[in-house]
User: Fold this.
Amino acid sequence: MKQHDSIKQAEAKLAKALKLLAKWRLPATPINYSIVYEYLSGKNLPLITKLDQHLFSHDTIDNFTLEEIFQQHVLGQSSLRNNLFEDVESVTGQVKDACIKSSVHSQQFVDAIDKSISTLSSARDGQEQALTALKYSTERFKTQQQKFAEALLLSQQKANALQRELAEARKEIYLDPITNLYNKKALSKHFDAWISESPDKQIAAVVINVDHFQDFSEKFGSLIGDVILSKIANKISNYVGESGLPVRTGNEEFFILLPEVEKSIASEIAEKIRQGVEKIRFISSKSGIRLPQMTISLGVTELNPKERLETLMTRTQKALSNAQSKGRNQVVTA
Assistant:
């Protein structure tokens, strides 16, 4: 936060912030408090707009939404940071290419010199003085070229190390910290890449919602709720494997893209996920108390030609709503 309030002003905002969090039925965590404080201060217009838009479109707001707003409008993890990573990756890639090309060209030059020396040596009237000078220059160049090759190798190693560090850092942008699944930013990036590569690509979609999770979280606390979400996310990943892209798109909501998978097969995968989650037995590690059985509702559909990601998600959400209206803990295919 970049506010410079007096103690009296800060205390007043604190009281309002706690009251607003209580109204939204959210815990006063550091992230939630930071968002509400910024919101009440009225200076972070992008944050205020984002929050107002969500409140206008939804009856409630959850921790997941506030975490997204915090990452984007308080920490500043925006497209600028993502572009910075891409620029650095491009530079390191160019360094590696330059190293390889320089080594190749240098070796070609040395080979040409060696060939010329061989030609001079076989000449009938070989000019010994010129040949001696050429040999000396060649040996010097070879020594310098060897040192240069070693320097290039060191540069390549550093470039590789930097790219590995960048890959780890980018996880903060594309991975959800609670479930370790991809987030919405990664979802859009992968979808755009697939469609750009193949506009008619067949893609099935599955949306998953944890049944009655809000009630569970209020009863047992957000920390236990996060553990439950992590366990369910792990079960989803196990069933999807490398064949799809599982994403956390909401507090208790997950979205899966399955490229080159028919809708009927996607429905079978969804049913296996539903059964797998239903069989999980959750026990508190502190108290040893068995927690209530958790179930999920799922909606399945597939991408229509030239359809946008937002439209696909909306249609899949409708299938999910049908599953919830029919009693939950089931799969409905659109």
Summary: Residues 128-174 form the longest helix (47 residues).
